[in-house]
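[job 0412] stage=fold_complex status=start
inputs:
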Amino acid sequence: MIRYIIRRVLWAVVLFLVVTFVTYVIFFVIPANPARQAAGKAATPEQIAAAAHRLGLDRPWYVQYEKFLDRLIVHQSLGHSFANRQNVNDIVANAAPVTASLVIGGAFFWMLLALPIGIFSALRPRSMIDRGAMIFVLIGISAHPVWIGLIFSYVFGYKLGWFPITGYSDFFNPPLGQEGGPWPWFHSMVLPWATFALLFSALYVRMIRANVTEALNEDYVRTARAKGAPESTVMRSHVLRNAMLPVVTMLGMDIGIGMGGAIFTESVYSLPGLGRTAVNGLFNFDLPTVQGIIVFVTIVIITMNLLVDLLYAWIDPRIRLA
Amino acid sequence: MALLDVKDLKTHFRTDDGIVKAVDGVSFSVEKGRTLGIVGESGSGKSVTCLTIMGLNNRRNTISSGEALWKGENLLTMSPRQLRDIRGNEIAMIFQDPMTSLNPVHTVGRQLVEAILLHQDVTKAAARARSLELLKAVGIPRAEQRIDDYPHQFSGGMRQRVMIAMALVNNPDLLIADEPTTALDVTTQAQILNLMKRLQNEFGSAIILITHDLGVVAEVADDVAVMYAARVQEEGDVRALFNRPNHPYTWGLLGSLPRLNQDVERLVQIKGQPPSLLFPPKGCRFHPRCPYVMPICRETEPELALVPEQEGLHRTRCHLDQATKDAEAQKVIAGTLAEAI
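[job 0412] stage=fold_complex status=done
writing structure:
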């Protein structure tokens, strides 16, 4: 077990180096001049050169990469934004809760939708609900979140006025002059959650349906019935307990992947999360911000995967980590 | 009154190709403490017969008719609740594949305890004690430790022992064993069969043993029913049937057994394939494969009739005259089978 964790952590370090390295290389391949951006529109060449020097852009990229690693490992700092010199740690710390709200709430939303539909379709194959669910799955998989987001905010936000059209209300510390707290937060997140969750709930309906169908045909389910167990016990203790094992793994991985997928939803609803911040950073050639977010998301995904593996070994007795 | 009395049982499955008559008018009875062996090829309907008795077929595509009287009450028309009270309690079942018949995510102890608590109003501790007792009775070594192990930590033979223990925890009156030794290697098979015989003496349960292995039947059964194409073709007391088999299909099964005292190039096999149960043949269901086929066999299905001059119950379904049957039967058993019983 300990050896397994050590091996996984070492792999995580390698993976982390590769990801950040590739981001650096890509950033320096882009024909852009962040110093010009930072120095302002009317800057003289001297001012631009000064800005470049101040940002460390006049040194070779590998020196910059080494400096980045040094800052990160020795000082636990992601550096400062090229655009406004803000501490990237703070930028990430401000944006992460927004994305976390979206992704975790979204995961809750999609499981709430996918579990009953998936289980019911498996129990009543070819029924109206099963066929309806398949149409839902097709739409969910085919439609792009940006399109869905625009439709939702037009219909439910603008036309019906049930929810805010865009924007985010902070749960704990709303900016001055804005409302905040649990209810406005929830209210502002409903449409983003629905948008974000649609694709995943479609995928999960299909996966849950397949898993439950498979489990229903297992010999041990027949054994349970032969023991005289009522259907509810058979479902809970034998069918779902087994059918949900792979779903738990997928959920953990998809929450990680969702961090990246949140970009579209955050853009449509102007949520100041990691995705939108990264996109804005990219438009400004703001390497430290983009890099900081990538580093953060990478760490989150790697940690999630590790947790999922450990959790899986715990809930599935057949897997014992050697 | 027989413990279980099956009368004209029919189980038909609706499929995309039509209606498969998997069991088509089967009757037999099981007496208290006796062992009935049901023999037949794959697809002859022997497993489905037992699944129907237990009510374990998929209800969505199954049509069952006839009667399965359990202590006088028809299992087929019982409410699900009544049937649940009998399943696993009065009638228990073990299955062919011990590798997949236990739930992989629960310990064997938990699965045994579940079986007890479903039918008995006892504490968990008492149920666990009873489970442990049964695991010891079926010969699981170090049962005190193994009770908290998961199924994948047991070998196939040990898992089948666990299945038997689980079937017996509630002292069932009838144990249905669906090819309990098919998935096991030969030495383990013998152990499991001996175990079942020993436990039958100890617990006094009746047994229905489904198998395609005549050797197994000869060893443990009191009565035999030979099934072919969804019907019983021959049935009777095990000695009567093995000493004087009266149906060409039974001869074929006996002839296909390997024998130690005869040198043969290859084993006898019954030519052809079992018929499709979507469109069973007209007349005798065995006639397309029967070497003794007569014109009448193609037209009229013979009744399941008593074999004349026979002690005990022995019935068969064949048009051949008795002299030919007896002459052929003697040829078939000339080698070995008398000794096997």
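[job 0412] summary: Chain A touches chain B through 22 residues (CB under 8 Å).
[job 0412] exit 0
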